[in-house]
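Contributing new records

If you add data, match the layout below exactly. Sequence lines come first and carry their own label; structure lines follow with theirs. Keep one chain per record. Anything else will be rejected by the validation script.
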Amino acid sequence: MLDLLRSRPPRTSLQAPLYTDPDMFALDIDGIFATQWLFATTDAEIPDPGDYVTVEFGTLSLIIVRGDDGTVRALHNVCRHRGARVMTDRRGSTARLTCAYHSWTYNTDGTLLHASSPGETFDRTCFSLRTAHVRSICGLIFVCIAADPPTDIDDLEEAVTPYLAGFDIASAKVATQIDLLEEGNWKLTMENNRECYHCGGHPELACSLFATWGLTADTVPPELAADWDRSLLADAALQERCDRHGLPWKIIEHLTDRDAGFRISREALDKTGESFSVTGDRLSQKLLGDLPDFRLGRTSLHVQPNAWFHGLSDHVITFAAYPVSADRTLVRTTWLVAEDAVAGEDYDVDELTYVWRHTNAQDADFVQLAQQGISSPGYVPGPYMRSEDQVEAFISWYTAHMSSHLDGHLDGHREGRAQA
């Protein structure tokens, strides 16, 4: 696997086993999802003490819970008795975390409260649920189970806060959430998200997202020339509006040169330019946070390795990819609206989700097609186009981190053999 990673030519997709082999999937969990900061949920999903969600990355399961003191914690969803899963629901609210197997009961801070067994005495303070690191950045909750998590998440927070603070995501309300199981490797899910070369297959999204996204002046095909010119005018108008309101809009991109790789920007939308709708009009009548204007385009944030976000003036959409197996990935999409927005009055859930429900379903089909093709003996890695620069950036980030991880793994193996 290390040889396959090292031998990848630049701007070329990976060899088939890196997408299809169950052993490689296990290595991905160990080398990426057990070492990096991962997007897990939002503060809006656990607003009150006792609120929790569970998230899974392969075999890794965490409980993200807000304690009685208001602190958000990440606890390994593994009972300290004999390892049973503690919380089995995807979300809920509870005063205590109780394992159904033998009723070991924990406080929301992970401390063991109750382990009923007549005649047994042991130090309960030694058997709290294991914890993971947690970081809330403008209402987006990231977790890391590594003993020493990457520190450059500080740089990410500093860079994205001016873009995200105005949305006040932490105080937003969950309008709805949809889980979609894609029949493909998690890397294919992320690759698909990182380009718009395939966006001709997204007619609903194309109503508001410019079809030229990801292109440059010298790569725009003749049939998209008018769209390109219109996008330039829209971007210029958006930049003027942002400058007037004191809002940042320039691209900040560090997708390959750090652990917490990211890209953030504010970009114009087509039509009326307010939201992801068929007409471009707003989908909720309430502005988020302290945003001053409905026509602020979309704030687009990508974070390695598993998340992307769209911030509109009327709602925010979060997307998280949770790897399930070598050929399955759960994509969780959450729509957030202003705290005082009322369903049926200020927004309609079906209208709010229309574009991305269809777009996500189309993407799931594309990912499945890619997995099926890559699983064939006829597959040979192909080239990334210039409009797929962010795909190349993601795969470059991935190969660098996995190569380093496997190098360390092999060095430890060699050292162990030498000592033996």
